[in-house]
Records
---
Amino acid sequence: MCKRIAIIGASFGQLPICLKAKEMGLETYCFAWSDGAICKDVVDHFIPISIFEMDRIVEQCIKYKIDGVVSNASEKTATVVAYVAEKISKPCTPYSTFLKIQNKEYVRRATNPIDGLGNVKLEVGKYDSLFSTFPRPFVLKPVKGAAKKGVNFIDKDTCELELEEELKTVDFMAEQYIDGQEYSVESISYNGKHQVVQITEKVSTGAPHFVELEHHQPARLSSLLKDKIYKLIPEILSSVGFVSGASHVEIKIDNQNNVYLIEVNPRGGGDHISNILVALSTDFDYLKAMIEVALGIYKPTRITDKAYAGIYFLSAYSSRLLEYFSGDSKEWMVERSWDRKELVHSCSNYDRNGYIIYCSDKKIVI
């Protein structure tokens, strides 16, 4: 009898993991609201329940004797996975831990004592109070949030701050600004043991919103720095209580090779990092590993880089890319998408006009 996997969410971001589960010969049950459910026709069983009705999903998982619960690249669905999997006694990071990890203050205070990780000064409060009192320069960000939404750089010349109405009442965290190069680290964890999968080099707009423009794998790092990151990431994940699943840890390295934590995301990296780029740049089947963890059958394997892969995002900040969206595809292009709308000046990672994914025997610079 084949194993049964529950997939939380049916949007475009969950399509790769639905397809991977089918490829593995699993019986697939997908839970999501039917509107916009593009995975509906891919899975064996589509059950139209909102992902926010978690107890109803638990009931259905018990009814169908589900063997594991999974999703990818979405913090909302990952939170539901933790809740449901814990309720039906399947491998996961506990739901209570998930809620803690979503709190950036908790993560910062839990990881600041780690030996070898740069210490970052912080303060939590309402944005207007922090704006006027915290030593500049600093980064102001919502205590809970994702995709750089609400993140602002405050320097000595910042006189006022424009925030969306929904952010004016939430708690913010002010953090000492660290100058350096950004990276993200993809990992897979199972029963409290953590394995680094890939390190991604990032290019962003910088201040004030730090919107991400490019991702490149593998990151260009010395063996000494790479070893340091491979040592620190398991310590970071253990310190915040992460147990099982994929994670996306964002870090920054200054010109003295000091490593600083930006944030811990308890899910695979978005922006096609975990769904596509890792498979292009390594010999590791990341999506398969996520599913095996969920089913309780994962066994660590050696991971080797096999190619260079990356993604360029189109927006007003990267208008130079427009020439690559028309005409014939280049041999290094894996995928490209363009909405053909006026180019946006991105304020978060949600504000973009398109992307180009590449894979080559060298880093592609365009």
---
Amino acid sequence: MADIARLTQVIEPEAKALGFELVRVKMTGSGEERALQIMAEDPETGQLVVEQCMELSRRVSDRIDAVEEEGEELVKGAYNLEVSSPGIDRPLTRPKDYSDWAGHEAKISLSEKVDGHRNLHGELAGIEGGIVTIEDKNAGTVYVPLDKIHAAQLVFTDKLMAATRPLDMSGVDDIEELNEEEAND
């Protein structure tokens, strides 16, 4: 597999140079179907548009190539590079995510049980001193050490949708809807 911490050391400066914040670096798949997934956001919008993803992808690809030409193999074997925005139902990977998205519904999977629970689902109350507070729908208030969280993500809700800033909508007025007859011509 790949050393994610080392990859992050190589990738993060490239994201920062473009003014982006790195959300997550992850290797998925196996064999010929492996992918290096990079998720980043523009702090102004909380998202990335396609052009920003392409720009980051080129920078990261060039940087990985340069490091590997110097003799360090960052990822053994073939893989696909995937750069994306975190999306609305984003993963929560950084301490700031738990404070930024307090008041929204989340699912949290734990690496070990906390208060007898392995999975939590409810409203995030925030983070303080490395402890995430969630109002779980069944268990009530649960305090979870950040280092016990295996994975967490926001749940798509109307409240989340309303809180998410829309991206560049220029050109939307130029979209024409076709009726069924026009679409089939």
